[in-house]
Amino acid sequence: MRKPDPATPANVLLVEDNPADIRLIQEAFREADIQVTLHVRTDGEKALDFVMQTGDDSAAPRPDIILLDLNLPRKDGREVLDAIKSAPRLCRIPIIVLTTSTADDDIARCYDAHANCYLVKPMMLHELIELALLVDRFWLKAVRLAAP
Amino acid sequence: MAWWGIEDVLPATAVLVIPSDLTGVMVLVAMLLAGGGLAAAIVFWRRSRRLADRLAQVAVGTDQASMPAGPQRSPEVSSEARFLMYAAVSADWFWETDTEHCYSYVSGRIEEFTGIPLEQWLGRSRLTVVCQGSDKALAQQHLATLERREAFRDFGYWIDRPTGRKHFTLHGMPFYSDDGEFMGYRGTGTDTTEQELARLRITALDRRFRLALDAAPYAMLVIDGRGRIDLVNKAAEDLFGYRSEELIAQSIDILIPPSEAAREAELSGLFADSPVERSIASEADLICRRKDGTEFPASVGFNPVQADDDRLIVAAIIDQSHFRAAEAVLKTAIDRLGQGQLDYRIGSASGEELGAVAELLDATAARLQTREEELHQRTEALTRSNASLQRFAFAASHDLREPLRTVTNYCQLIAHRYASTIDDDGREYIQFAVDGVNRMSALIDGLLEFSRVQTQGARFQTISSKAALDDVVSSYAAAIAEAGATIEYGALPMVQADHEQLCRLFSNLLDNALTYRGDRPPVIRIDAERDGAFWRFAVSDNGIGIEEHYLDRIFLIFQRLHARADRPGHGLGLAICKEIVMRHGGNIWAESEPGKGSRFLFTVPAPEDVESEKA
User: Fold this and answer.
1) How many CB pairs under 8 A join A and B?
2) Which among A116, A145, B290, B587 would be 20 to 30 A from B383, CA to CA?
């Protein structure tokens, strides 16, 4: 069991290839005044290296939550989701799908692959800031997660 | 004429006899002598009335004076006299020829038949006349008979007379002298002109009748009143495999087995007192049997004919086995084609009619198949292009949204982060950029929705149109209240539709009516009327209306009639409406009176089976 520790910022893995979105999410956390350690990986393979502590990321910390875009170069978000959720050691890490797709197929498929929640990237900045606050309050503070 | 012995018979009256009437006189006298009576003599005396009268007077005198009365005297009459009498009474004539076949005697009646005086006959060769007037072969045969000195009967020949052709028939036999020497022929002759002409007529008629019968395409039989075959045509011979001779006088049973109950009923009707005609059926109704024992279905027609004293039945028989087989072949073909097996062909088929029909059917099938292949290819191509269009629209709207979101977010971030350093102009520019992005986003939403109408629609179900409208009106509650609008509708029918799309249809039309409202508080009325297999809905408003020449354009994609600033909207609402209605097989159109209002009408299918009741 892991208790949220306000003193130590949470490790958040953001898997996103669009620099504008990466920056925007960073800004949203900043605007919301949320202290997190944001690790960014820009494709599916790098994301899996980070989570599995392989390749260049052998010393990577275990992320507290993962923000996952679906459309990624090389291995896309769906494959990353499948790989993590089918690995016994990793499947307890909450994965928040954060994408532009509103397609019913994508939503259903993600939940079928045990995504913990599915969020659509909002059009408005203030909505994104609200989303960052929600993630922080719910996934990083309210929720009690299982030990690794 | 010495052999007649006329002098012995009538010496006293011989002087009165003129040569041409010699026979007549002799006959009369003979009759008198034989006691035959005066009346009979007069009756047979036709050509020389005057002479006859005179002779009659003589005879009367003789009768009274010297002739004993009564027929009992006949045995004593000489055979010669008797002969003369027969010759006069007979309808025939008698002749005699010599060893050279020249006439040595003819009885008087020949003159009547030929118009040739008696004396001209004597000495003439019988053979010249006879051989000219007879068939060559018959004449040859006749000559041979004569050569063998044989008797002959029924030798007929034609003779041309100014009054017309005559046909004579001769019988004759040779006669000999006491010491056995051939003396010539003696015989009788008959005028058979009428009979011969009748015979020829009948023969010709019979020939024609048979030709006609043989030319008939169907087997035909003539059956007599006892059910025996009288006549058979060529087609019947072919059909049943019998020769005509084998069938004549046989019972009809050998062709149509009596086990056929239908036949029994029919035939008994035909032989009844008032026979009923049995017309030929279009379908096989009796079983017929060939010589080889095989049986076949046939249509048989019986027609009773009253011929003189006999009742005849003319039967026409049509072999239906080809038709049966043809029927089966065609039925199979049509069934297969009907099931969509367009590559099915009958191929070669026997029978002329069937062959032609089969060819026609095969050709039609080939055309259908080609058409269907073309159609299939076109449909596939269309489906492919449609699918790629859908994918394109979907992907485009997604991928377009991302950069838009980026633009919006960063504009807002600038406005937020640098609020204190940006002036009013800067804030206005940023607002324009954000507005543009928002409109673009709305357009993408519209396009996405438009592209999904045909592909992402749900199955049609029997749904309540009123329930759909209720949903829409409640979701528009705020907008309706804000516009001060009144929405009026009563009972609305059940329809066969996609609920989501019907909602979208109502909502776009309602949205339209609220958007293009006039100065008055909007009044929007929705009603429905039955229109064949469809319900026709009308959404009427009291808004600004549409000018007539724009009525068609409003349903086209991206068509706007109003400046953006005046009326919001992405220009896709009515195009989506049209797409939805078309997916339902219906139609949509608008009527309007500018300044007074518009009326949008559309049709959607009524539920198929149950008579829909207004919900």
Assistant:
1) 38
2) B587
Q: Fill in the amino acid letter for B534.
A: F
Residue of B247, B244, B246 lying closest to B233 (CA atoms): B244
Does the predicted interface ipTM exceed a cut of 0.85? no
Q: Which residues contact B61 (CB under 8 A, 6 or more apart)?
A: none
Sign of CA dihedral B226, B230, B233, B238: positive
Q: Which residue has the higher pLDDT, B134 or B139?
A: B139
Distance from CA of A106 to the nearest CA of B (A): 13
Are the Cβ atoms of B438 and A123 closer than 8 angstroms? yes
Q: How many CA atoms lie within 13 A of B203 on its CB side?
A: 6
Per-residue pLDDT of B441-469, as tens digits, reads: 888 888 878 877 877 778 888 999 999 99
Which residue of B391, B400, B409, B412 to mutate against A (max A Cβ within 10 Å)? B409
Contact (CB, 8 A) for B172 and B186: yes
Instruction: Tell me the per-residue pLDDT of B227-265, one tens digit each, with 9 for 90 and over.
Output: 788 888 888 888 899 988 888 888 888 888 766 556 656
Cβ count within 10 A of residue B494: 21
* Nearest CA distance, B458 vs chain A (angstrom): 14
C-alpha to C-alpha distances, B132 to B138, B185, B278, B547, nearest whole angstrom: 11, 19, 53, 111
* Statement: residue B68 has pLDDT above 60: no
Q: In what order do the strands lie in the sheet with A117-120?
A: A36-41, A10-15, A65-68, A95-99, A117-120
Distances from the Cα of B313 to the Cα of B131, B272, B310, angstroms: 44, 12, 10
Note whether B402 contacts A100, CB cutoff 8 Å: yes
Indicate the pTM of the whole model.
0.44
Chain B CB within 8 Å of residue A31 CB? yes
Is A72's Cβ below 8 Å from some Cβ in B?
no
Mean pLDDT of the B145-159 span: 89
What whole-number distance in Å separates Cα of residue B175 and Cα of residue B99?
Answer: 10
